[in-house]
Design a protein that fits this description.
Helix content: 25-40%
Strand content: 25-35%
Strand order of the largest sheet: 9-1-11
Number of helices: 5
Order of helices and strands: EEHHEHHEEEEHEEEE
Number of strands: 11
Radius of gyration: 17 Å
Structural class: alpha+beta
CATH class: Alpha Beta
CATH topology: Double-stranded beta-helix
Largest sheet: 3 strands, antiparallel
């Protein structure tokens, strides 16, 4: 499968609670192609002005999981009624305290987070665009250049990531395991 995760996200927004940990193992890679970007969402939150932190802490994100999954399946020409029956629309706080440490971080997902409850669609989209821009230019941004055998493990309550496409003719094969949230 090509093009997976080529948007800013934390894994598992269709679960309540979302995935806790992701493990990604690279089986094959053309070095220098198909990097994955990571950003520490605790650092992003900490860097926001205090009044912005307080306002965001009151916001809930709307994740219309069934509609998004159904739309994705439609693009692929696949019908998966069993999976659709398992999904439900969820809300997650935009600012999530870590389930173990309590440290606050932004929780965002460009594909699954459709809007912020209580805001107009325009206001919601403007705020989300601003948050993704702030996040993607943060000093804690890390770009991982994959090599065969690399194993990465990250905390989804603290990190957001984005896969970059591989260059034409390049190969990157990874297998992912996610661990349920706590």
């Amino acid at each position: 499968m090509s093009g997976g995760g080529e948007y800013w996200h934390s894994d598992g927004p269709w679960s309540q609670p979302p995935s806790a940990v992701t493990i990604l193992l690279c089986f094959e890679s053309s070095f220098g192609s198909g990097q994955t970007l990571f950003v520490d969402m605790r650092a992003v939150f900490d860097g926001l002005p205090e009044h912005f932190q307080r306002d965001l802490a009151q916001c809930m994100g709307s994740y219309p999981c069934r509609a998004i999954y159904e739309r994705e399946l439609g693009y692929l020409g696949i019908a998966d009624q069993e999976k659709l029956s398992e999904l439900r629309d969820l809300t997650h706080p935009i600012v999530r305290p870590h389930p173990v440490t309590g440290r606050k971080a932004l929780y965002l997902n460009e594909k699954w987070l459709e809007s912020i409850e209580g805001m107009s669609p325009d206001e919601s989209q403007h705020l989300l665009t601003e948050l993704y821009n702030i996040s993607s230019t943060n000093d804690s941004l890390y770009s991982h250049h994959w090599r065969t055998g690399d194993l990465l493990v990250w905390d989804n309550a603290s990190m957001m990531h984005k896969a970059l496409p591989t260059e034409s003719g390049a190969v990157k094969t990874t297998h992912r395991v996610t661990i349920a949230g706590i």
